[in-house]
Design goal:
alpha/beta; Rossmann fold; 6-stranded parallel sheet; 20 helices; globular
């Protein structure tokens, strides 16, 4: 057996042994040894192999599978610029805390830095964006990879999974393969080991002190009655439940961004980004203590609320950065505090019924204003999101794009006893790879035998940015995935930001609005997926109500961006 084949088989064996059940592969020559080993492993059902021609889409597909499954997932590519195309997904995995393993095939040392074809400096290519990076070389002739190489791969997978303290993160395994890159004619067939039990990265051992102990450490005499809990992006549903329980126990309103999945319980206040935009309410309801959980900051009004609190305590639940964009947190905890315990020294202040009532009344008024605005038959991005939320069941998952889409969802979400799980790429809130991420989430949920579907809410630019994600081989299974694209022919969010002001109108369309003038339905249908076009709220609701078997793409052609801007101004009471 030649050197490269032996090393590739060892790597695949150790991936499987350490709980890697899904691998995404992009084709290439230098990666042939590991591609052939993976194909053999897939034939024996030791691993699920997914193939994509676009490395960027491949990496985001792996990200989506890992995000939904909680298990490490590998993406394999060939040498050269292929490696650079993994970078956007690696960055998202870093800041969102996702166990992504980038396996990058490379030339051996003698072919590096000498102008060899399709060769770049790949060693440590991702720099600080990965937790660990290893350059593994095919052994010299007449030797075989052994215990050291096994330990290297094992350690790398464990680094991706993380510990109770640091959580999951991406890693890189760079492998220098020498020719020949395919097995010798006399090689025995590769027999992959039996897959191990799935490795979960769910963290359940974080230290959680009672909230009154926390405020005691801060020098407060009691747990204040006027507190607020803000939940940002949270991967673990248990953390969301803990945040809800704390808010209820303290009598505090709880605000949840969509992927916080904590808009539940008697103290939940939907549409907070809408009513907190009113300066008068926010000025009169500055909390004595605000507890933020996870990466937050989707809307400016909520950020301003946090900035105005007397005391800010943050909870870090995964990802790379300290979740404190205002640098205002006096303490960063590793877990959500438990409800207060009986303690004569640091008691819980009596609940302030008026405090909570004010927040609930403001929330009710904002929701009524939204309902009134959305009662019109005009199909806008806001209406598209509302129909998707209302049409999603508790068994479904909702994946929402960044930019305008997630802000629309933040506004229209309502308290539901049994709500769908909401996910998004909130690590860096990028526009890239969203079709592939949604596909990966849907695949993982199908593999888990979930009964619901995945509904992806995307804008037109997000869809165009990753329509390559629809190019899956016909031999691979199609997940239960419905992609809803709000098509307003350009970048809708910029109309609601500073650059949408009249003084920038001369250049707005060219550099911000960026109308694409493309037939998105034709583009979607060209990939072979069932595609429909809707132009009215009722049509969209009807299409979402139809049973789903495989991938369905709904292009919702919305009103113009100017009409959408006016609708938002009505919601926010802007004249």
């Amino acid at each position: 057996m030649n050197d490269s084949t032996a090393l590739a088989r060892l790597v695949v064996e150790r991936l499987i042994a350490n709980g890697v059940h899904d691998v995404v592969l992009s084709p290439g020559s230098r990666s042939a040894p590991i591609a052939l080993a993976l194909a053999a492993a897939a034939r024996s059902n030791a691993v699920r192999l997914h193939v994509r021609i676009d490395e960027r889409s491949a990496a985001f597909l792996a990200l989506g599978i890992a995000k939904a499954s909680g298990a490490p997932v590998a993406v394999v590519c060939t040498s050269g610029s292929a490696v650079a195309n993994l970078a956007p997904a690696i960055v998202e995995a870093t800041y969102a805390g996702v166990p992504l393993i980038a396996i990058t095939a490379d030339r051996p040392p003698e072919l590096r830095n000498v102008g060899a074809n399709q060769t770049i400096d790949q060693v440590g290519f991702f720099g600080q964006q990965v937790r660990s990076s290893v350059d593994l070389l095919a052994p010299s002739h007449r030797s075989r990879p052994g215990a050291t190489e096994r330990k290297i791969v094992d350690r790398l997978v464990l680094d991706a999974i993380g510990s109770d303290l640091d959580g999951p993160a991406p890693v890189q395994l760079n492998i220098g393969f020498r020719e020949p890159l395919v097995p010798d004619a006399t090689d025995v067939r590769f027999e992959a080991p039996e897959p191990s039990v799935a490795v979960s990265v769910k963290d359940s051992k974080r230290i959680r002190e009672p909230i009154n102990y926390i405020v005691g450490d801060l020098g407060l005499a009691e747990v204040p009655a006027r507190g607020v809990v803000v939940v940002g992006d949270v991967a673990d549903p248990d953390v969301s439940v803990q945040a809800i329980e704390l808010a209820v126990a303290c009598g505090w309103p709880i605000i949840s961004e969509p992927s916080g999945n904590a808009l539940a319980g008697p103290t939940a206040v939907p549409a907070a980004s809408v009513f907190l935009a009113e300066d008068r309410f926010r000025a009169g309801h500055q909390p004595a203590l605000v507890l933020t959980v996870g990466r937050f900051g989707l809307s400016r009004p909520i950020v301003r609320l946090v900035g105005g609190a007397e005391v800010h305590v943050a909870v870090h639940v995964g990802g790379r950065d300290r979740p404190d964009p205002l640098r205002s947190a006096v303490m960063v905890l590793g877990g959500v505090p438990r409800p207060p315990e009986t303690d004569p020294l640091i008691p819980l202040a009596a609940h302030d019924a008026q405090w909570l009532r004010d927040w609930i009344m403001a929330s009710d008024a904002a929701q009524a204003r939204l309902d009134e605005v959305l009662d019109a038959p005009m199909l806008t991005g806001l209406a598209v999101t509302k129909v998707c939320w209302d049409g999603a069941t508790a068994d479904d998952a909702v994946f929402v794009a960044a930019s305008r889409s997630v802000r629309n969802l933040e506004a229209v979400m309502t308290v539901r006893q049994f709500a769908p799980m909401v996910l998004g790429n909130r690590g860096t809130s990028g526009i890239d790879g969203l079709v592939s991420t949604a596909w990966g989430i849907a695949l993982a949920r199908d593999q888990q035998q979930r009964t619901g579907r995945t509904i992806a809410i995307l804008g037109d630019l997000a869809f165009l940015h990753d329509h390559n994600g629809l190019l899956a081989p016909k031999s691979e299974p199609r997940p239960r995935l419905t992609i809803v694209v709000a098509d307003n022919n350009g970048g809708g969010i910029f109309s609601t930001l500073e650059q949408g002001a009249p003084e920038f109108a001369t250049d707005f369309e060219q550099i911000f609005g960026t109308p694409h003038n493309q037939d998105l339905a034709a583009i979607a249908a060209a990939t072979g997926h069932h595609t429909v076009v809707v132009t009215a709220v009722a049509e969209l609701a009807e299409e979402l109500d139809q049973p789903v078997d495989g991938v369905k793409i709904i292009i919702a052609r919305t009103a113009g961006r100017l009409d959408e801007q006016k609708q938002w101004q009505s919601v926010l009471k802007v004249t």
